[in-house]
Amino acid sequence: MFYIILCLFFSTASLVTITLPIGSLIAGPLMDKFGRKIVSLVSCIPAAISWVSLIFAKSLTTIYAARIIAGIAAGLTTVGLVYISEITHPQIRPMLLCLNSVFVSLGILITCCLAVLLDWRQMNIIFFALECCIFLLLFFVPESPYWLVCFQNGMLNEKQMHKMKHNLKRLNRRQTIYEEECLRIMETCKNRVTNGEAPKTIAVSIKNYFHKFTSPEAYKPLLILFALFLLQQLSGAYVVIFYAISVFREMGGTFGKSFNEHGAFVMLGIIRFIISIITVFCSRKYGRRVLCILSGIGMAISMFLSGMYMHFAVWYDENGNTEEIASQKWLLLFFVLSYICTSSFGFVVIPWTLIGELLPLSIRGIGGGLVVSVAYIMMFGVVKSYPYISKSMSIESIFFSFSFMSLTGTAFVYFFLPETLGKSFSDIEKFFSAGARKTPDANSEQP
């Protein structure tokens, strides 16, 4: 049963991946027009429809349709990254944004565990119930203070100001933090009005849209994010996650008594979840650059050692030393799980959190949706091409290529990614607009 459910999951997962960009692209304009909270609530509706369709599905066509709807719903959840980045203090923003990956890892782990105990219809009933709970909880979430004052046609009235301050007070109980955040929001809003960025009419918005994306504070972070996601995909982290059972089977399938590729897959899920939690706390202290650099180095070393093991395993096998190879397979498993461990510490998690930090407020909604869309298209292309690549390349060559791309990603982070820990949105925008090459000091004083 476990294997059947996993096969069904991975055969339909590509539908979610390829339709998710549609939801992401829609989410941007919607969240700017109607608000972060409304779009968060709306995203639950297609997700609930998807779960109900799966519960009562009687044909494969219904299942595919449900997964397409689920992909669009998943794309709409891009609003969550934008919302969290706007309601949190710069000192804890990196930590809270990392929770996105924590809950993704938790969801995958729960799915694996439920697959052992329940059939797929029962699992969908549980997921539908959870979706309903999320929908109800979102009613108690305050609207983003940034959206309340910065996306109201450039006109601030007393009612909007009162609502913004009320929501801001709910989010920041301490008076000093409340006052600091209020000043920061007002400064950002005034800059938008001064620069003519506040939306007025559809015609004016369309006319000014190209100008916004061609400004340095917009296109520079977009290019950095696109490059970072490309390197993330080419480093192979998601390939190993998506094809874990196949990869473990190519590595030999058994790693000791009563421990096969399925056990290794469950262990992979547990490791991802634990490391993502550790990343949450580390991101508050060490920032983005340090975590990504350490992650990239760890990934490169782990994949290089995995490739070397497979290289010598082939040599030993050709010389008839199969028993020695079998007794050392746990070492190969250790290298691959170390790769997953180090990738979850930085490169799998951090790029997603940077979407809500690097992009300026004027394009954060639409730009964030665009970045997520491109990221998932890259993921779809890399993941779906792996079976064909694995037929033309040995597993050791694939491991070596992953190691090289991990090292390339590390170099890119070192030279181009600015630190965002403790930086306000204004600081980050000023860094890109100034064209400075020096990395911003994460410990600089806040405005």
From TrEMBL:
Its main location: membrane. PROSITE patterns: MFS, SUGAR_TRANSPORT_1. GO terms for molecular function: transmembrane transporter activity. Keywords: Glycoprotein, Membrane, Transmembrane, Transmembrane helix. InterPro entries: MFS_dom, MFS_sugar_transport-like, MFS_trans_sf, MFS_Trehalose_Transporter, Sugar/inositol_transpt, Sugar_transporter_CS. It holds the Pfam family Sugar_tr. This is Major facilitator superfamily (MFS) profile domain-containing protein.
